[in-house]
Known about the structure:
By secondary structure, the protein is an alpha/beta fold. The chain is 40% helix and 17% strand.
Amino acid sequence: MSRWLISCGGTGGHLSPGIALAEGLTARGHQVTLLISQKKIDARQIEKYPHFTFLRVPGRGFSWNPVRLVMCVLSQLKGFGFCFRLISRDRPDGIVAFGGFTSAGVTLAGRIRGVPVALHESNRVPGLAVRTLGGLARRVYLPTGVRLTSVRARHIRHVGMPVRREIAPAPRPEACGRLGLNPSHCVLVVFGGSQGSSPLNDWVQAHLRELAAEGIQVYCVTGPGKGEAATMELPVSAGGTVKSVFVPFCDDVATLLSAADLVVSRAGAGTIAELIRCATPAILVPLPHAADDHQRANASFFERQGGGLVVEQSSINRLTSEVFDTIFNDWLLRRFRTNLQRMDRANPLEVMLQDLEELAAAKPDQPPPAGARPLPA
């Protein structure tokens, strides 16, 4: 049995794979402590996992704004001190950081204390934290085909994003029933990630009656602080009504994606991994101002692999016609689902667990385990 620290706070895209890894490590008899940020969104998301130990680490994201930059540096110093004391006290066998501003302190403290550090990057454009800290890590996990010149090739493994145990497809009628939807009508899910998306929310509101008129049920996750929960019945042009639901947050993503015939969403790596696991076709609208434009790279790869389509936010006026052309095209939806199931054949979690156990068992001056070539995603 070994002890692990997992740094995964700041966004759902960091926290979700951190929890997935914690589930895998504890299932194999290891002890885990998860380091999260002091954001409200982290506190909201961890409510479902009372069996894990979570510690809130000081820290703020990077900014070129002079005032925010000073605040970032000061908070990172506090975070480093917190992590250094924690590592000195608990003496973990390994550290895994999933990027973001919570990774800096624990990675640096782990390196100083001689603890093996692994970094995981889910996006197809490595973020600032992984680019900056990669040279300090004994292992860096990257998506298939992604390179990082600042990290030695022998330290890199190519794996996808681990997905929480609860993210598993359910029969569509059952999923619709849980959400109070009618399985005989098409279901469009609009999902902006853990933070929500105002442009996607606005698009739904502008076209809600048009969608309902064609018999499409809408389930929109608006994001915290971006709208109140509401349910309404809207008329269908052929007669009858369909339900449209708005909720600020969804605790059961697997049910949501299993009920959907089609999803309209942002292109965060976490959302894409969950779409793949549930084999749910999607139209992705990348966030235009995402750091290093990583959502556009994620979306482009998803489209090339045949999981769905991409509509740029600058062309969001095309979105309605794309939804109508896709959601009623059974042949195209089947093709997307087949491609998504093919994309889900790899098991990133099992690859990581085996590799991390070998990493923790190796002596600091030992070379990587034999055959340490980039592994398939």
